[in-house]
Amino acid sequence: MTEYDLTVSDSSLPQKGDKPFFCLAKSAQFNFAEIIAYVDESESTTAHHLDNISDAGSALAWCVSVALESQSAADLLMSLPLDNWTIKLSNSDSGYSFDLEGQTLSLGLDEQTIDILKNSAFLRETVFNDFLYALRDIWFELYTQEAAEDLSPESYLLWERFRQADIASFSILVAWEILNMGDASFWRHATEHENGDMALAFIHHLTRNEKNSEHPLDSARWQAFKVWYRERERLTFCDRRSLDYMDDMLAEIGPCAFGNDRFSTTFIQKISGLTGFQDYIGDKAKDLSCAPEFSIMPDEISQTHLMHIMNDLTGIQKSGVTFRDKKLAHLIFPDTE
Questions:
Q1: Can you give the residue range of the structural domain that contains 233?
Q2: CB of 115 within 8 A of CB of 89?
Q3: Do 199 and 184 form a contact (C-beta atoms < 8 A)?
Q4: pLDDT band at 9 (very low <50, low <70, confident <90, very high)
Q5: C-alpha 209: how far from chain center
Q6: Rounded to whole angstroms, how far apart are CA atoms 245 and 241?
Q7: Last residue of a domain, one of 143, 159, 194
Q8: Is residue 95 in some structural domain?
Q9: Final residue in a domain of this structure, among 100, 120, 143
Q10: 101-128: per-residue pLDDT in tens?
Q11: Which residues 6+ apart lie within 8 Å of 154 measured at CB?
Q12: Domain membership flag for residue 166
């Protein structure tokens, strides 16, 4: 095995009270900012919101109320321009999806009902985790995507790894903060599922170094972030998805879909300094940009896929065929442009 180094809503909010304040029959999607404002002004506990789940709107209010239990999640919510965004729950989907231009966010229930959401801890934890991932993903799209568009193909792969590791480590930080507010369910979910190795690295570092670190949560998050790169399946899934996206961009736009910028120390420091990033990278930017533990591509299929993309970028297209040699292309297809 070889290794390759990449070096407006129709809903309205009622008055405060114990009765459900959204009606799914009236609207399937809700104004994001109004839900946040309602939860913030209601001064109700998260447990109260959970007890009152009866439809999509009240379920989304519960989700926001949990996020506001975490300082990091609350800060992220406040940093996003969500005034005109709408949010909905979808019974037919799983995970999350959003439309940046249409300003819509959808959270999937994986073909389950609101009643099951209310009574199933696992489903609630999954939907809330998807909510966190979506918020962080939206932040990246809003504030960093323009800079990422100028990256070279290899650097774009490194960037997507960085982004996914950041989102996963953010969810772990939030689960820890909610644990410290008295709710252990989300931390338990974090340790028992796909990123459990990251959660364990986080708590192991925090318990050993909390008294010796000026910013213990930042340093613990950095440890969780690093662990993301050590799981081959996680890394390969990210790379393959990125490569498929790059294929789509090449087919739609052509070679100009990519730039020549590098995933450099300067680039990382620029992203880390943006409002809402909650910088925990610190002086590790140089390591991130060139250290083998962050840049190795262990999957041979991904290596081959990347080489094909690089060939397409440096070659010439003739009748749908890519040639490295321009003379050979004209010789085989002399009558085509």
A1: 144-326
A2: no
A3: no
A4: very low
A5: 28
A6: 6
A7: 143
A8: yes
A9: 143
A10: 999 999 999 889 999 999 999 999 999 9
A11: 6, 7, 263, 306
A12: yes
Q: pLDDT by residue (tens digit) across 138-161?
A: 999 999 988 888 999 999 999 999
Whether residues 88 and 187 share a domain: the answer is no
> Residues 198, 164: contact at Cβ < 8 Å?
no
Backbone angles phi and psi of 136, in degrees to 5: -70, -40
Does residue 333 fall inside a structural domain?
Answer: no
Kindly state the tokens that stand for 64. 């926001």
167 and 287 assigned to the same domain: yes
Based on the fold, state whether residues 249 and 235 are members of the same structural domain.
Answer: yes
d(CA 40, CA 36): 6
Q: Which range is least confidently modeled, 51-60, 85-94, 282-291, 321-330?
A: 321-330
- Is 156 in the same domain as 136? no
Chain segment 199-248, per-residue pLDDT in tens: 999 999 999 877 777 789 999 999 999 999 999 999 999 999 999 999 99
Distance in angstroms (rounded) separating the CA atoms of residues 117 and 220: 31
Residue 263 has pLDDT above 90, yes or no: yes
Counted domains in the chain: 2
How far is the C-alpha of 128 from the C-alpha of 66, rounded, in Å? 8
